[in-house]
Amino acid sequence: MPKEIRWVVVGLALILGGVGMAAPLLFQGGGEASGIDPADTAKLALGRQIYDAQCAVCHGAGLEGQPDWRQRRADGRLPAPPHDETGHTWHHPDAQLFALTKYGPAAIAGGSYQSDMPAYEGVLSDDEIWAVLSYIKSRWPPAVQARHDQITQASRQ
């Protein structure tokens, strides 16, 4: 193999290896130790405070979301969904919820996806994002929490 091609192959291998090692960090955010914990009272208190200040204006004080959240508005965007058990938040594993919150839906779904949901990177710390997600999960019935645990566990396998 010519030297030039060998260096291109080595360079590509290093780049792909770096991306492969960074991907879990992107989607795990703060990592396992910082994950969603609906039993951590300190995390729940912080999460509620942040939810009230940052999230309730769109998702509702009671996590009820906006009316007709499944129907696109005239601008093509979806209203804010509920974060209670009637919505789809609990259908997504911890890492995906973290990534959606930190980086915003457009970064996860693709640049052409439009949403009113902002990215919270630079606004909230990773621990604050986990606290908000912990608060949201703490409001779900036990059966929904258990199902969400199963979804998260399956996503890690």
* Radius of gyration of CA atoms, rounded to a whole number: 18 Å
Number of helices: 6
Distance between the termini: 38 Å
CATH topology: Cytochrome Bc1 Complex, Chain D, domain 2
Helical content, roughly?
55-70%
Number of E-state strands:
0
Characteristic key phrases:
Cytochrome Bc1 Complex, Chain D, domain 2, 6 helices, heme, electron transfer activity, Cyt_c-like_dom_sf, iron, globular, 157 residues, 55% helix, mainly alpha
Explain what you see:
Its cofactor is heme c. This is C-type cytochrome. Pfam families: Cytochrom_C. InterPro entries: Cyt_c-like_dom, Cyt_c-like_dom_sf, Cyt_C_IC, Cytochrome_c-type_DH. By secondary structure, the chain is an all-alpha fold. It has one domain (about 5-155): Cytochrome c-like domain (Cytochrome Bc1 Complex, Chain D, domain 2). The protein has helices at about 5-30, 40-60, 95-105, 105-110, 125-140, 140-155. The longest helix is centred in the N-terminal third of the chain and has 26 residues, at about 5-30. The protein is globular. The model is unreliable at about 10-35 (pLDDT under 50).
